[in-house]
TrEMBL record:
It comes from Pisolithus tinctorius Marx 270. Transmembrane segments: none annotated. GO terms for molecular function: hydrolase activity, hydrolyzing O-glycosyl compounds. GO terms for biological process: glucan catabolic process. This is Glycoside hydrolase family 16 protein.
Length: 341
């Protein structure tokens, strides 16, 4: 949620000096010979399966001003419900979380939207989001992410994120402790591929004023925005394993592994992940703990607003806030979020 795509390179350079001061103990020499291990053969069993009304009963509607500076007015559950911005579609049990697309809002004003946070928190596990659609439209900034207490100390994991007309999904970790955390690019070799995504920045260390984090961009245009929706959505998975690292996959609707559909997920069947953060260069348990899950859509703000002029979208971001029609498809249609341990 804090990722700034356009700032990633700058931040990676900026934090190069800091990384040197907190070097991880394992020598680089070892890294080249190692086979990347991004999954286990562990058997996962469901811990929490959120579906339909569960998002209203077991998650909390955030009503503060947007911490990322967006042009949104986050709604309480009762206001979101009465405005038709949060509801269960009786036809298929999907949960819809929408941006207001009917109100007259002035340019630069705050358009009603929804941000929900799971009451429960997690410090590892296998997390799966199945969505039929995600919010699209100029100025929008949707995200499915997780965050611990006292940001950034307990870290942040951005599983689905992007802005404006972004073509592919961005996956980002933000670490906030002095325990070094970087993407280990040495694990991806010609004989042993560890991730399919493009590395955008390798240093995960984030502060309130420099929070690009370490990121991958997916290579599949079905992983975000219109491409995701045109493929009837799909699944995103995060394997958060304190001994191996973090791995993330995206599957378009037609390619969802049957073990996921059958609720007996086995990541060792899923192939190379889109993003992989090896525990060899990041102490996972020191940097990421007690995370609540978050689903939101903001508008403009730090990232969607900052990147707007180079996005190909018309006019300015603050003017687009006033364009109700632009937000007709700015909605999440969520089939479920599952947490396995
Ligand atoms: C999972 O089990 C299969 C079959 O026993 C084996 O080939 C594979 O290496 C195992 N994967 C991991 C990550 O342990
Ligand atoms: C809809 O979701 C609710 C809440 O999880 C669940 O109890 C119910 O069985 C679901 N209905 C269908 C048809 O899947
Ligand atoms: C989740 O938290 C909200 C806000 O504190 C509370 O109203 C709700 O009852 C909680 N849900 C559960 C299932 O505990
Ligand atoms: C990862 O390794 C594969 C196989 O060698 C290669 O095709 C790909 O370009 C590498 N990815 C990155 C981001 O270096
Ligand atoms: C990772 O951090 C935890 C908590 O600070 C610590 O107990 C553990 O020893 C660290 N592991 C490594 C490999 O440094
Ligand atoms: C308003 O949004 C719609 C849908 O994105 C777009 O077609 C139209 O050009 C926008 N109007 C203005 C004035 O930007």
């Amino acid at each position: 949620m804090h990722a700034l795509y356009f700032a990633a390179v700058v931040a990676a350079v900026h934090f190069g000096t800091l990384a040197g001061a907190h070097k991880y103990s394992r020598s680089r020499h070892h890294l080249f010979a190692r086979t990347p291990q991004y999954t286990t053969n562990k058997t996962y069993t469901v811990q929490d399966f959120y579906q339909a009304e569960d998002f209203f009963n077991e998650w909390t509607f955030f009503t503060g001003s947007d911490p990322t500076g967006g042009n949104v007015a986050y709604q309480s559950m009762s206001d979101a419900t009465s405005k038709g911005l949060a509801y269960v579609d009786d036809c298929d049990n999907s949960t819809v979380l929408a941006v207001d697309s009917t109100s007259s809002i002035p340019a630069g004003g705050n358009r009603p939207s929804v941000r929900i946070t799971s009451n429960k928190s997690y410090s590892s596990g296998l997390f799966i989001l199945d969505a039929a659609a995600m919010p699209v439209g100029c100025g929008t900034w949707p995200s499915f992410w997780s965050v611990g207490p006292n940001w950034p100390y307990a870290g942040e994991i951005d599983i689905v994120e992007g802005v404006n007309n972004q073509a592919t999904n961005q996956m980002t970790l933000h670490s906030g402790t002095s325990s070094a955390c970087t993407i280990d690019t040495a694990v991806n070799t010609s004989t042993s591929e560890a991730y399919t995504g493009h590395v955008l920045g390798t240093n995960c260390y984030s502060t309130p004023t420099a929070d690009a984090g370490c990121a991958f961009s997916d290579t599949d245009t079905r992983s975000f925005g219109y491409g995701f929706n045109n493929a009837n959505g799909g699944v995103f998975a995060l394997l958060w394993d304190t001994s191996l690292g973090m791995s993330m996959w995206h599957f378009a609707r037609s390619e969802i592994p049957s073990d996921i559909t059958n609720r007996a997920p086995n990541p060792s069947n899923w192939g190379v992940p889109a993003g992989f953060w090896s525990s060899q260069t990041c102490n996972i348990s020191a940097n990421f703990y007690q995370h609540s899950l978050v689903i939101d859509t903001t508008i403009c703000g730090n990232w969607a607003g900052g990147a707007y002029s180079s996005s190909g979208c018309p006019g300015t971001c603050s003017a687009m806030v006033a364009n109700a029609t632009n937000f007709v498809n700015a909605k999440w249609i969520i089939n479920y979020v599952a947490v396995y341990q």
